[in-house]
Design a protein that fits this description.
The chain has 735 residues and is an alpha/beta fold. The protein folds into three domains: 65-138 and 339-436 and 471-482, Rossmann fold (3-Layer(aba) Sandwich); 157-335 and 553-567, Dimethylsulfoxide Reductase, domain 2, CATH 3.40.228.10; 576-734, Beta Barrel (Barwin-like endoglucanases), CATH 2.40.40.
């Protein structure tokens, strides 16, 4: 059997790295970086090689399963679809459409077929109880983009290939390959900034992998980013450093902004943020004096109590310095597939959740209230759930509460190829094919890439007989749920099924900005793209305003009144000293962390990604550990107001005193899953500690950073045995 060279795109994270995969028949011989890929240029991270582990994983489901008295049993696709549709129809007929809830995990946005066809399924369900991973980590970005730039996906990204001063707040792109900034080989890109005489500055409660490469790292107290940004903007006004061109595309003037920030001098906020006033002023001056600076904030600035305000202030700081739509600053992309013209702009607060009165965004409620909507009696109570490519029991706040809530549902269906901690509660599981058995074009992350490129990847392997693509699952369920259709709707249904993802992609490319503008006879089409196995380089990011704006005015809508009203809450949170805060002895502040070998919980079932030293540890500052008489790898009990976990401590000087860091996605110790490798490397779920009521009250995003916790040293056998016994009792009860 002859060897074959295949060119693919990794879709396990946002970086879109080009791959060269050598195969022989159905066997993968090697996975390497594609040096001719115009975006990644030969770089890959360890996750890419895990594609082989996932495809060959004996735990991966390939046939529909139904829960019975005798355990999980295989079921035909036709029977599975019929039972799912009939059960959903029955529940909605008895209780109303909103009795069925949905949760979409982030693998859906890495999946062309799921993106294009999942929306039809959601429309057929016609429920307001929709949730997704968006409200776990990135909703503030979308809300700011929708208000200022006219579309929730119209988020400008750092032009890091041309910047000379990269200010990074609460982000670790060396571990994430860039998030809402798709940038493979970020190490090389950061070093290039320095080699051309620029600087990289990292502000983070932890001395991260990115900080190790930076010119300077500054510790900051978790959850205080908004105060730091207000102080830097204060300096910009105070020292008259506003760029002359900053109002060029504004729909209104900056009236009121100076008044908003006048009380937030560096001297006033310094002790709260943990950065001295001289350093704060220096940051503002250095940024303003640099030729091509850019400020970027990600998870640490988003998943906190003031995440929306922080993201708005980052955008405002860039804007005041003339760094929006400027080379080396925040730039808008020009992707080949114009998804913005075919998707919702992102409406906000049209209606609110039943139990906690939280606002919707783009038709979704914050997932922090999902368990409440299942548990709270009354009209509108969720009776059934559809989970697609997600594991919210491990990835959303107070996962144990959600885990308990799922036990009381009448029906659960999961679209997933793993039996994980969430869908172990399911009645039916519908598994799609693996990543290597489906074609791929990245519709979403080309919107956020640091260079404009386009690449189509055909399926590496032909899907096994009797399996289904994600889009086929969504399409079949949609057709069964839609009922009787008008003639025109029936025609559209048939067109959608006939086109498939590839046909729809072709239409997007033909009608996109490059469809008629390249030196090709007919412009860019899927056929042309298929002739370019390494992908097509569409060039560096370029200034594009006002064309790139999707606002009605074709100008940047500052939306000052909308966002700055949150200053009242911020003032009360940090400067209201009418009551003495009640703090437990040795209280710490919890933050998360990312590792380059991890992204989602299901990746822990890859041997390549979990091998080596255990990574589910609690990072703690050396001085704090000494106060508690702790030794490295000693077990500690970390407790919050919602739960506690036991895990080993990792003592280091790379974290701010008073802060403790635990990675997300672990906790594979629940009975009833089929994740054999993950179970052997179980770790503990940090979301047993996160409080679902601690949110960014502005939009409802979970506040996963800044959680107050206490730490107890387990110093004797009795403590350890007691914890082991309680854990075992929990597992037995679940079984």
């Amino acid at each position: 059997m002859t060897k074959k060279t295949n060119y693919q795109t990794c879709n396990l994270c946002e970086a879109m790295c080009g791959l060269v995969i050598e195969t022989q028949g159905e066997k993968i011989l090697s996975i390497k970086g594609d040096k001719e890929d115009p975006l990644s240029k030969g770089y890959i991270c360890p996750k890419a090689t895990a594609l082989q582990d996932i495809h060959e994983d004996p735990d991966r489901l390939t046939k529909p399963l139904e829960r019975t008295k005798h355990g999980w049993q295989p079921i035909s696709w036709d029977d599975a679809f019929d039972r799912v549709s009939s059960k959903i129809k029955s529940i909605q007929k008895r209780y109303g459409n909103d009795a069925v809830g949905t949760y979409l995990g982030n693998p859906n946005v890495h999946n062309m077929g799921a993106l294009l066809y999942g929306r039809h399924f959601l429309q057929a369900l016609n429920t307001k109880n929709m949730y997704s991973a968006t409200s776990v980590d990135q909703l503030p970005h979308h809300l700011v983009a929708s208000k200022l730039f006219g579309h929730m996906l119209n988020i400008p990204v750092p032009d890091i290939d041309h910047t000379d001063y990269f200010l990074i707040l609460g982000a670790n792109p060396v571990a994430s390959n860039g998030s809402i900034m798709s940038s493979p080989n970020i190490k090389k890109r950061l070093k290039s900034i320095q080699s051309r005489g620029g600087k990289v500055i990292v502000i983070d409660p932890r001395y991260t992998e990115t900080a190790e490469l930076a010119d300077k790292h500054i510790f900051i107290k978790p959850g205080t980013d908004a105060l730091l940004l207000l102080a830097m903007i204060h300096v910009i006004f105070e020292s008259n450093l506003i760029d002359d061109n900053c109002t060029k595309y504004l729909s209104n003037e900056l009236d009121g902004i100076q008044e908003d920030v006048i009380n937030y001098s560096p001297e006033r906020v310094a002790s709260i943020v943990g950065i001295d006033s001289v350093s704060i002023r220096r940051l503002a001056y250095e940024f303003s004096e640099a030729k091509k600076p850019v400020c970027y904030g990600r998870m640490g600035t988003s998943v906190q109590s003031f995440g929306t305000l922080s993201q708005y202030l980052i955008t405002l700081f860039n804007l005041l310095n003339g760094r929006i739509d400027s080379v080396g600053g925040m730039m808008f992309t020009n992707p080949a597939a114009d998804l913005l013209s075919h998707t919702s702009k992102g409406h906000f607060d049209r209606y609110r959740s039943r139990v906690r009165n939280l606002p919707e965004f783009n038709g979704e409620f914050p997932v922090s209230t999902l368990a409440d909507e299942i548990l709270e009696p009354g009209d509108g109570k969720i009776k059934a759930m559809v989970f697609a490519g997600g594991n919210p029991v491990l990835s959303t706040p107070n996962g144990n509460k959600l885990d308990e809530a799922l036990k009381g549902l009448e029906f659960i269906v999961a679209i997933d190829f793993y039996l994980n901690e969430t869908n172990r509660h399911a009645d039916i599981i519908l598994p799609p094919v693996s990543q290597l058995e489906r074609e791929h074009y990245d519709l979403i992350f080309n919107l956020f890439a640091v260079r404009n490129t386009a690449k189509y990847s055909p399926a590496l392997f032909k899907a096994q007989k009797g399996t289904k693509q994600d889009w086929e699952i969504y399409q079949s369920l949609t057709e069964l749920l839609q009922g009787k259709l008008k003639v025109k709707d029936k025609i559209m249904q048939q067109i959608n099924r006939h086109l498939g993802p590839a046909g729809q992609l072709d239409l997007l490319l033909r009608t996109g900005p490059h469809g008629q503008k390249l030196n090709l006879k007919k412009g860019l089409t899927l056929k042309e793209l298929k002739r370019l196995p390494h992908g097509l380089d569409l060039g560096a990011l370029k200034p594009s305003l006002p064309h790139a704006l999707r606002t009605k005015s074709k100008r940047i809508e500052l939306s000052r009144d909308f966002f700055m009203k949150d200053l009242l809450r911020l003032e009360k949170e940090f400067f209201d000293f009418s009551e003495e805060p009640k703090k437990a002895e040795r209280q710490f502040t919890l933050i998360g962390r990312r590792h380059i070998r991890s992204n989602n919980s299901w990746m822990h079932n890859s041997h390549r990604l979990v091998k080596g030293k255990p990574r589910c540890t609690a990072m703690m500052n050396t001085a704090d550990a000494q106060c508690l008489s702790l030794k490295n790898d000693q077990l500690i009990e970390v407790s919050s107001n919602v739960g506690s976990i036991v895990l080993p401590v990792e003592i280091t000087d790379k974290i701010l005193s008073g802060v403790i860091s635990i990675p997300h996605g672990w906790g594979h110790n629940k009975k009833g899953t089929r994740l054999s490798i993950a179970e052997k490397n179980a770790g503990q779920s940090v979301n047993a500690l996160t409080d679902e009521t601690m949110i960014d009250k502005f939009c409802g995003t979970a506040a996963l950073n800044g959680i107050p916790v206490t730490v107890k040293a387990l110093t004797n056998t009795d403590d350890i045995e007691k914890d082991t016994e309680s854990t075992q009792q929990l597992m037995n009860a679940e079984a």
